[in-house]
Amino acid sequence: MPPRVAALRTDLGKAGLDGFLVPRADVHQGEYVPDCDARLAFISGFTGSAGLAVIGSDTAALCVDSRYTLQAPAQTDTAIFEIVDTTTTQPGDWIAQNFAKGAVIGFDPWLHTPGMIEALEKTSAKAGITLKPVTNLVDAIWLDRPAPPDGPIEVLGANRTGRSTADKLADLRETLAKENADAVVFTLPESICWLFNIRGQDVPHNPFVLGFAIVRREGIPKLFVSADKLRAEHRQALSGHAELCDKANFEVELAALAGEGGTVWFDPATAPLQVKTLLSEGGATLMEARDPVLLPKAKKNTVELEGMREAQRRDAIAMAKFLAWFDRVAPTGTLTEIDIVKQLEAFRRQDPNLVEISFETISGSGPNGAIVHYRVSNKTNRTLQPGELMLVDSGGQYLSGTTDITRTMATGSVTPEQQDHFTRVLKGMIAISRARFPRGTTGAQLDILARQYLWQVGLTYNHGTGHGVGAYLSVHEGPAGIAPRYTVALEEGMVLSNEPGFYREGEYGIRLENLIAIRQSEVGDGKYLEFETLTLTPIDRRLIAIELLDKDEREWLNAYHASVYETIATALNEDDRQWLKAATAPL
Q1: Statement: residue 1 has pLDDT above 70
Q2: Fewer CB atoms < 10 Å away: N or C end of the chain?
Q3: 542 and 485 in one domain?
Q4: CA atoms of 407 and 509, how far apart (whole Å)
């Protein structure tokens, strides 16, 4: 990385800047970015899903949250970059402390949201530091930058999505009328893919088409994608629903929209700052509010929910094969983390409905399991030793839906401490699974249910308990989840993860994750909601301190395991079926 940082610093002087911001995000603010937009990895080596580099002429920082405080220094040249934990020091504070009064720091306005820049300006302005929108300096030095993605577009039928594009657009126009907005601008790929019932292959692990959309209250929406993707069959399938336009024309069309002088809705939490600038300077009245597609998308219809159940069933078969194989081979002490990833993905690919894994598999043995978002590489790959805990977090994108599951497995004798911590995590997962709550309840209110048993002994985990999951879309979607930051009311049809954990740095990690769907409870006269557990994979009984489970918890786990066996046993060969029978035996 030193030559790249040196080249950037040379261009800082030429541009009259004292520093430059390099975010992880691309123009679409997605968790995954195509190779051509992986600027943070290019300049720093860090490949996590969130982060910001601040590079000055003689100082630099890589700002990451608590998930990546172990990964960041392992991937980054710490002689160049100071690793800053944003849970204790915000990027703006670091900038104020490390740049002189009068400094000018550049940023690409297509890669930062208005909220991001406003937060940085609050502290930097007090220190006399200016943030200035400029052309991207990383792009200027990235001479071998990969080409943009050119994967095909697929238009889905209502038999897979449950609702037609026409119906979704009709609902959206009703929302625009209700909110007195003349148009809405979309920049999030998952919103666009859901609204127009399209999928693509533009980013790893997510079936996204990267693009933009402008939907007016009246008239045909404009959908902006790469010209290379546009085919006659796409135009025919979307005829009457969208005018297909080249993505390169989005900025011009945005300016034209602004010139109409109407009220334009955009999401300041996800849209680039440049969208706001073009609209405001062009004469539009701005309506800054949450993307109006996020909530309808999160509330899956019956077809989507059935597809998610089908995806979980298919995934459960692959997981059972994997766990049976793991139990046979792990005690030999020959498995590496990469071996485990390859074998798990091979089992998933036996299913013809698998499109892709839903994220890069987390395969953490022993101490690597304590790195929350650990990604194994040839450099970090280690051999799993008998007696160590093994944490595997993985998922699949199936034609019918998306999966995400974490299991922690024993490979030999386990300590009482490991059993205690595992069981407290399990109790938290069960507490969420069994929760019944009134309508209007948020994930922030439920989060304590998962943490309470760890809190009792002074322990916790530094990540959310659950996130939203898309229906053959992003494995991480908003606006609802289970964590203090999720203040959106939980509603029927939402699919969330349920994944408490515990991490002993340098020793082991424990996480258990099932997907759950929100449904109306049979009690409470329709005023209460509860969860349906979708995931169908055994939980390692060897790691459970049975005496810590109460009667209701034991009954829940026994019923869960009985359901697992009943659903998938017949799809396994005899050896794996016998393994499953033992793994799901009642406590």
Answers
A1: no
A2: C
A3: yes
A4: 11
Confidence of residue 137 (pLDDT cuts 50, 70, 90): very high
- Sequence-ordered list of residues with C-beta below 8 angstroms from that of 578, at least 6 positions apart, any chain: none
180: left (phi over 0), alpha (psi -120 to 50) or beta: left
Report DSSP letters for 276-300, one per residue: HHHHHHHTPEEEE---TTHHHHHS-
- Say how many Å lie between the first and final Cα of the chain, rounded: 53
Structure tokens at 102: 């009068």
Q: Do the strands 405-409 and 390-394 form a parallel or antiparallel pair, or are they unpaired? A: antiparallel
Same domain, 310 and 457: yes
What is the DSSP code (8-state) at residue 249? G
Q: Judge if 199 and 269 occupy the same domain.
A: yes
Range of the domain at 76: 2-141
User: Last residue of a domain, which of 270, 290, 310?
Assistant: 290
Number of folded domains that form the chain: 3
585 lies in a domain? no
Coil/strand/helix, residue 85: strand
- Domain C-terminal end among 117, 141, 165: 141
Phi and psi, residue 27, nearest 5°: -65, -20
* DSSP characters over 385-418: PTTS-EEEEE-EEETTEE--EEEEE--S---HHH
Are the CB atoms for 206 and 198 separated by under 8 Å? no
Per-residue model confidence as pLDDT tens digits over 277-320: 999 999 999 999 999 999 999 999 999 999 999 999 999 999 99
Greatest alpha-carbon pair distance for the chain in Å reads 72
**Statement to judge: residues 206 and 317 lie in one domain:** no
Residues 351 and 486 in one domain: yes
Region of 266 on the Ramachandran plot (φ > 0 left; ψ -120 to 50 alpha; else beta)? beta
pLDDT tens readout for residues 31-79: 889 999 999 999 999 988 889 999 999 999 999 987 788 788 889 989 9
For residue 569, give both structure tokens.
């046993």
Statement to judge: residues 37 and 87 lie in one domain = yes
Which amino acid makes up residue 323?
L
